[in-house]
Specification:
There is one protein chain. The protein is α/β, with parallel strands linked by helices. The chain has three domains: 156 residues, 3-Layer(aba) Sandwich (Rossmann fold), CATH 3.40.50.300; 34 residues, no CATH class; 93 residues. Helices cover 50% and strands 13% of the residues. It contains 16 helices and nine strands. Strands 2-5-8-1-9 form a five-stranded parallel β-sheet, with helices on both faces. A two-stranded antiparallel ribbon has the order 3-4.
Amino acid sequence: MTGPAAGASATAGPQGGPAELRARLEATGYLVDEGLAIACFLALRLHRPLFCEGDAGVGKTALAPALADVLDAPLIRLQCYGGIDASQALYDWDFPRQLLHLRAAEAAGVAGADRLENELYSRRFLIARPLLRAVETQPSVLLVDEVDRADDEFEAFLLELLSDYTVTVPELGTLRAQSPPVVVLTSNRTREVHDALKRRCLYHWFDHPDFDRELAIVRGRQPQVTARLAAQVTAVVQRLRTENLVKPPGVAETIDWAEALDALGATELDAELAFATLGSVLKYHEDADHARSLDLSVVLAARGV
């Protein structure tokens, strides 16, 4: 879906209210419920980051590109991991290019240490990492993915940045966003994120969708899959989530399983084919063993599929 012109995106997006925003998100193929539509609307209207928490595979990360599509804005992604620091997320100096410039200047007989230093630490040698790019790009959608994987120090740094959307580069001064980027933070809850960061954000918990909504997502993402197969896959996954599994499958796994079965030429699901393709939906040996103990015919009959 093509959104409004870039200059109007930051303000035009939410003016029609949550219902219009929901319709525009769903036009991109991203289905949302009323609660998420309201959370997104408020994030846009109030210029607040949206903190998305829930199990892996429930659609948290996919929200950011859908918003970027609606707003016709570039998506800037920061993938968090253990040990990430400010230089990896914010900016760094291009030391190889600086060294080449210095050697070229010396070979050409350029004089003046102060002049050379000013040239070396100019904007053209600055490498903008995701956070700085988001501050400098208007409009933009910034995805801070899996923030729970970062450490406490990075969390504190991120909180400070999200408070005023400014970046200070000692050699260049303070760079300030003309308008705040739309920020989506995600967490799989591998650890608790500090309350200070959550307080800065609007919060939304992502539940697994109900049968009808998950089926609609599968049909939307894998339209080539037969209606019967999509319904059967969704029914089995919904049942698997009620079992005591190490890692219950998310919506992403439901989509993957439907795609895998379609690639095999299947138009409907039976127990033999389901058990042979469990690697598309379950990622632990113990979970696969447990799934094989279920009577899938009963599961499918219960749903009428």
